[in-house]
């Protein structure tokens, strides 16, 4: 683990045998003396040309959105105070030989755009002054609205310097220089898109009618940029690279980069203290990733335990005989017994049913015959009484009996017809019941469909007064009153047809809109692919430039090695010449002067080659950084455009 992490920091031997990083050697490197080279390791990430500024409270040094323009983009660690400083005397801490380099801001293509803000509108100016006043007062800057309404040159400069330093505390502002010389370069440094429209003559009288709108727009733009910076710093986004905000479990590549940068920083600090074993940084990084993997490790152990248990159960099942054969035999026997019992039960059920029916029929017949017997007995007694009372002749009795039989047969016929009519009525009632059930199911289906289609009252205009609900009244005697609600033919059916036609038209319009959006998405996808191809081509160019810078650096190092060897040889020759001069007298003074002159020429050549190499590397690195910023800006614009659509 330690060896792998050490391999992440490339190192190589310089011409004097010291271990150094892969960062290019600056032009101002000095050859260490033999006495100090064995005890002092020189850092190649030393101080920049600017003086260190104190970081604002509760602000991470890596959070600055606008780095100072004289910071070398090759080494971002030079922005930290007291890291990599060259010691004034030989001490136990490694010194730095890196002097930094100036990176000039180049205007982007957006600086040629025209300012579309209504700067000369009174209401817009009032709004801008109010925004500026609110932000300055909330930031602790003492100012009033009267000062903004009639501003002086010194007040304008104070506000401008305050906003610039809030954006970038490391921006080099010279209070002793003329404000006209500092104004436009500072705006270009913060990428003000309309810096080319600013005239330095306006600063002499900033409150004048022709200059104040543009200068007020500058302040308002800086205030909005400060607000954006504050919102970004308070957003907690992973790109802020704050190690303390990284959660215990993370998968974001930016979180991994933040931990890697923190490890490099700690290891580099330890390395500057003459310690080559990065024990504490390695331990911190291992503990952090162990904490990240702790939950996954616990889940893995739990799954492993469950797997072991399942394997043990599987081995037991494999070692024992399969119980399915015995269970299958028992199942077959039980099924056969079940079939037999089912047949027996069916037979007994049939017998039981027949016996119950027979008993019920016999009981009914017995009751019916008993009732009939009693009726006939009563009728006989009644008739006997009537006959005795009336003193009828036998002929009359025979005639009356004949009439009674005829009436009895007629009564039996009527009873049979009534029974047939009753059966017909029962059949019709069953049919009516079935049809009523079908009608209720159809109405339930209709109501469910209406509910799912949101057709219950209130309906959308112009059908807000129509009620599409239907209820079945099966007890109604009139067929027209079976359904309670609006008329189906005159109201419900035309309304449903109109709603269906409206839905079809809406669906057609939505489908056309979807096709239009799909076409726009296809166009955006094509544009993204074109941008990706352009980015790939530019990355190839960047790779070529990196290879050229590496070749220049290697060539410069080789020439530096050759020049160092030549300088060492000349030193030996010079020492030998001095010894010979002491031995042979003043006759060799001219030779000594010639050797010294050659030595100075070689040293100047070495310095010149180193300066040219550093300038070339800085130039290429600056071009790469500018290219990355331009690509990032284009991608952000494309993303904003896609999100806006």
TrEMBL record:
GO biological process: attachment of mitotic spindle microtubules to kinetochore; cell division
Record's GO cellular component terms: Ndc80 complex; nucleus
Domain Kinetochore protein Ndc80 CH: 102-230
Subcellular location(s) per record: Chromosome, Centromere, Kinetochore; Nucleus
Function: Acts as a component of the essential kinetochore-associated NDC80 complex, which is required for chromosome segregation and spindle checkpoint activity.
The family this protein is said to belong to: Belongs to the NDC80/HEC1 family.
Name used for this protein in its record: Kinetochore protein NDC80
Organism the protein comes from: Laccaria amethystina LaAM-08-1
